[in-house]
Structure formats: C-alpha cells, structure tokens
Amino acid sequence: MAAASRLEVRNLTRIFDGKTVVDDASFEVRAGEVACLLGPSGCGKSTTLRMIAGVDMQDSGQILVDGSVICGAGTRVPPERRGIGLMFQDFALFPHLSVADNVAFGLKGGARANRNRVAELLDQVHLTRHRDSYPHALSGGEQQRVALARALAPRPSIMLMDEPFSGLDERLRDGIRDETLAILKDAGAAVLLVTHEPHEAMRMADQILLMRDGRIVQRGAPYNIYNAPVDRAAAAFFSDINILVGTVQGALTKTPFGDFLAPGVPDGREVEIVIRPQHLKIDFHRNGHGPVPTAENGTAAHGTVVRARFLGRDSLVEFRMDYDGSVLNATVPGVFLPKPDTTMWLMLRRDRVFVFPRG
Ligand SMILES: Nc1ncnc2c1ncn2[C@@H]1O[C@H](COP(=O)(O)OP(=O)(O)OP(=O)(O)O)[C@@H](O)[C@H]1O
C-alpha cells in the first residue's frame, strides 16, 4: 500500500501567450479515489497535470498534498520529491532496458528489496514471464502494463495519468481499463486521470471533473454528472442530444410533448429542453390515435421516420416531427428498425428531460 495522500489544487491558473488555458481550477482528489479530468482537446487538462507533476509552473494558485503546499505561495517542491507517479499516453518505456529494469528504474532501495518489488509488480500485471524481454517485443497492452508497474513501483501516494489508454486497440481497452482500475485501487493512491473520452471517465472515475475552456464546469460522480448536467454542453458531451426550444410563461414551457417546468426563468425567456435519444419512446400509429398521455411520458407527438440505422444492440431512428418539421433522434432496441415514411408517435421520459435557459 502507498501512504495515503490527498491532492488538492486551489485556484490554479496558467496563461500562455496572453491566453488563459487553465482558469481558476480548484478540486480535490482523496486518497484511494480515481478522479477523471474530462474535457475536449485543448481545454487545459494536460497543462493542469503538468503543473501538478511539477514540470510546469502555474501563474497563480496552489497545489497541496495532505494540506501542505507543494507549489505556490513561495514554495516549489521539485518534481522528484513530490511522491507523484506519472504515466503518459506513449508509455515512454526505455527501449534499451528489459521489462524488469524498466520497472526497477525509479526504485531507490537495496538490490534485494528492489528485486522483490519488481517481482511483486510483474506478478500483479501478469508479466512475470516477460521480465527479460525488451519493450519492442511486447504488445501495446503489455507495454501499458509495464508502464503502469514502473509508475507504481516507488509506491507513489499520488498517480497522474495522461490518456493512458489512448494508444491501445479499441477492442482491448475496456479490459485493460478494468484491470488497471483494480491495480490502482489496490495501490490506494489518489489518482488523477486525464481523458477526452466520456466512456472512459464513466467507467473509471469515482469523481469526474468536467473541464471546458480551462475551467472546471462540473464535478461529481459519473451518475450525477450524466443525469444532472449543468448545461446543454455538459449534456452533449456525454451523448447525442435532441433540443426543443420553447418560451416560458408562468414558469412553464408549452411543447407538443406537454408542459415543462422552467423554475426561476422569467416569462418571455426562451429555454432549451434537452433530451437524450434513448429517452425518447416510440409507439405505433393506431388509426390516427396516439398513446394516452401519462405523468411519466407526457403527451405523444406525431412524426415520420426519415431514416433508421441498425447499430447492433440499438437502432438510431431519425424522425421529422409534424408540429414544426424539426428532426428528433431516438435510440430504440436493435430488434426494431422502422422503414422510412412510417408514421409514429413519440413521447419523452419526462424525468430525464433537462431544461436550460437558452444561451
Ligand atoms: N507550452 C505551451 N506554450 C503555449 N501554449 C501551450 C503550451 N502548452 C499548452 N498550450 C496550449 O494550451 C491549451 C491547452 O493545452 P492542453 O494540452 O493542456 O489541453 P488538453 O486539454 O490536454 O488537450 P489534449 O487532449 O489535446 O492534449 C492549448 O491551446 C495548447 O495549445
């Protein structure tokens, strides 16, 4: 077990050429927790990680470990004394060193203790039989495991990982993510993992830190971030979305799918009603009659299939809606693939709808 540590950043800001790329970011990663810094390319994730690692320096703000400042306010602990393990996208293995020597690289103990530690780690990542191989002779997944073992060898109390799975074959990734997560949990370090893939963050994270334009715009458990996004862009980051636009009257917005509450939004203001494709329900056209309205699904609206694509487990069906000609996308079970020009009824899972004031 690593000595348990808590990583905290307070008001971290970094400016490059007059552009603020990390903007007043504050967050905390507890010992044993995996936090994923998630956001689109260029939003400042790697820069944040580099400052915590100590290879870049913030313009303002502080980095703390267990409540003590390691960088900021006149203090700057050098990278090698921060007790932080690093793992990067390209694994950065030493090509001229064997697997065992790569793993041993950062160890400072006596030869015997180091040998034992390397053996323990190689066993943990299932690479004992490759201990004398060189990196070029290993698959991508094996190289990833060597890099993980090397980063964990000195028992860092904090681990920083920058897109550690992106170099891997898509089919292998989920398995390797799960194995890595088990090893990290076992090590007990505070883990900050950078990724631009929502799927990866949902699978790995105890806490997601959603970043946009250098700012942390939302933080929370994957379930909460997915089911209660702070704005339309946060909702759209995790899946395709449909948007209905309406105007508020008396804290309500009328739509063809029924009325939706828009608490706190003044009358006359436009709102966007956001719904994920999997939360649209479809029903057959029964001689012009639609399904009976319910509290759960609201009122049905009428639309025509434009096209339907079979995606395996699901089908994605595109509808043109009668009420204004707009297009809505619905995800339905893959056993179902309606033909173009079929007319159908659509309903919304009312509890899964998000209402945001329009930008
Ligand atoms: N040393 C630097 N000098 C100038 N600009 C930089 C420097 N490092 C990063 N940037 C800029 O800062 C912004 C944030 O970069 P960063 O690498 O942190 O983003 P990211 O979210 O990790 O993106 P990606 O996933 O593509 O790596 C980018 O616009 C980048 O061009």
UniProtKB/TrEMBL annotation:
One of its GO terms (cellular component) is ATP-binding cassette (ABC) transporter complex. PROSITE patterns: ABC_TRANSPORTER_1 (PS00211), ABC_TRANSPORTER_2 (PS50893). GO terms for biological process: quaternary ammonium group transport. The keyword NADP does not apply. It holds the Pfam family ABC_tran. Residues 7-238 form the ABC transporter domain. GO terms for molecular function: ABC-type ferric iron transporter activity; ATP binding; ATP hydrolysis activity. The keyword Cell membrane applies. Coiled coil: none annotated. CDD domains: ABC_Carb_Solutes_like. Keywords: ATP-binding, Cell membrane, Ion transport, Iron, Iron transport, Membrane, Nucleotide-binding, Transport. This is Iron(III) transport system ATP-binding protein. The lineage of its organism: Bacteria, Pseudomonadati, Pseudomonadota, Alphaproteobacteria, Rhodobacterales.
